[in-house]
Amino acid sequence: MAATAILLGIMLIGMLGRSNIVAMAAGILLIIKFARLEHYLPIIERRGLEIGLLFLMLSVLTPFATGKIQSKEIFKSFISFSGIIAIISGALATHMNGRGLDLLQFEPTLMVGIVVGSLTGIIFFGGIPVGPLMAGGIAALLLSLWRCLPF
Questions:
Q1: Residue 131 phi, psi (nearest 5)
Q2: Domain locations in the chain?
Q3: pTM for this one?
Q4: Most buried among 14, 55, 110, 121, by the most CB within 10 A?
């Protein structure tokens, strides 16, 4: 019953915060629970991130498939300042995502804080919930910095 109340609360917060993705995710999980299909939840938990990343990559790579991005534009990304910054940013982001995954596997209870922080970012700052791994990566970085402070 507590899980249902939490999901209803998240769905309500998602609707109030105009985050259709959060509201829809909570709603789908409620439907799975009410339809007594909970045996699919471990599969969603284990493979949901990969499926979500697959669809994110499909969205990002679609301009290549449609021909909206030409090979000369790709070449420019390797020689322009902004392109080089984008390459460095991509490498840094994937490294941070890896650190976030490690942190969340080591301390899974931090996921609650990441969800609350994500909802806060969506509702109050107009953010987009693209993934807990980057939030975990930032948390790992901040925790590393915190541990270096001489207290």
A1: 165, 140
A2: 70-151
A3: 0.67
A4: 14
